[in-house]
Amino acid sequence: MKNWKYVAINIFLIFHILAISTWCLPMTNPFVQVCRFAVRPYFVWTGLFQSWDMFSPQPETTNAYLEAIVLYQDGSTKIWSFPRMDLLSLNERYHKERYRKFVEVLLDGKNSVLWPDVARHVARLPGIREGNPKKILLLARWSTIVYQDDGTFTRSPLDEDVFYRYDVEPGDLQ
Questions:
Q1: d(Cα 84, Cα 64) in Å, to the nearest integer?
Q2: What is the pTM of this model?
Q3: What is the pLDDT of residues 29-83, one digit of tens each?
Q4: What is the DSSP code string of 145-171?
């Protein structure tokens, strides 16, 4: 029994090291692409995925964040903001950095299957659940960062879009 555990742990570690190495290689040859495709479900499921878009040659040029507009049964509203790195202390950023990546993934339309769960999560939050929420609107706000010829950067005006509407069911608040 002890040997079985030792073998299983070693197989996991070898797989994990090879998977991370393959995933993080900044190459796009066919073999690496096949390996990435094979390990993608594991990385997405565990939240270990990483992209190279924060580095060259084409860094991310959009500053985006999420908010939820909560509509209550009595007609009142409340805005709840997902953690934003630019508004947090260094210590808070360390603990909540995954929210930045979560926002990137959530805003990708390919991941729309997550939107109802995110809306239900917001409806269940303390301070929101007690108010008997009726509807949750997920709102994306963003501005584009533009590189100027003189070497400076400017930010476009803030834009916004309600990209998902969710009607809260009584069972959602359990």
A1: 9
A2: 0.68
A3: 888 888 888 888 888 777 776 665 555 556 677 888 899 999 999 999 999 998 8
A4: EEE-TTS-EEEPPPEEEEEEEEEPPGG
Q: How many residues does the chain have?
A: 174
For residues 10 and 41, which has the higher predicted lDDT (pLDDT)? 10
* Cis preceding linkage at 57, omega within 30: yes
Could you give the residue ranges of the DSSP H alpha helices within the chain? 2-24, 30-46, 90-96, 98-107, 115-124
> Cα separation of 14 and 145, whole Å?
41
Average pLDDT over residues 112-118: 92
Residue 10 CA to residue 149 CA, distance in Å, equals: 53
Residue type, 3: N
- The one-character DSSP state at 82 is P
